[in-house]
Specification:
Largest sheet: 4 strands, mixed
Strand order of the largest sheet: 1-5-4-6
Oligomer: single chain
Structural class: alpha/beta
Order of helices and strands: HEEEHEEEEH
Radius of gyration: 15 Å
Number of domains: 1
Number of strands: 7
Helix content: 10-25%
Distance between the termini: 26 Å
Strand content: 25-35%
Shape: globular
Length: 147
């Protein structure tokens, strides 16, 4: 567990940690709108395009300002790059209903995804996946990923 003052510092340290874990340090950023995650598979629409970290930077800054916990999580490897997400689980809760206090810490994780990673390259197949694959993994609503 570490504390960070900037997104860039956190990502830089995370890349070092990934290298120590012998995982690729080039990053692809998972966002809620491009993922379907059920009990059997993690589907990601055109994962090779997920290079924009700006939504994650904004969420990181917001979580940092509000002392919410942050986790940078590795989910899979795609085309020699690490698929990761910025998890900010308490950020979306209504403060009036939040009964616990967070530490404002930043953690690194490698998720033990038992489900199969399924890259979806075709728009037509993605429409099918969006229609028939529900986000039914128990932890889906707790991730706090950017939209």
């Amino acid at each position: 567990m570490s504390y960070f003052d900037t997104f860039d510092t956190a990502v830089h340290q995370y890349r070092k940690w990934l290298a120590d874990c012998q995982l690729p340090t080039e990053l692809l950023w998972l966002v809620r709108s491009r993922v379907r995650w059920n009990l059997t598979s993690l589907y990601v629409f055109q994962p090779g395009e997920l290079t924009d970290s700006s939504p994650h930077r904004e969420r990181f800054d917001l979580a940092l300002r509000n002392s919410h916990n942050i986790a940078i999580c590795h989910y899979a490897v795609y085309d020699g790059r690490s698929l990761i997400s910025l998890d900010t689980p308490g950020l979306d809760f209504n403060p009036k209903h939040c009964v616990y206090h967070e530490s404002g810490s930043c953690n690194y994780q490698i998720m033990q995804v038992k489900e199969r990673f399924q890259p979806v390259e075709s728009r037509l197949k993605w429409q099918f996946v969006k229609r028939f694959v529900r986000n039914s993994n128990r932890s889906w609503n707790d991730r706090g990923w950017p939209p």
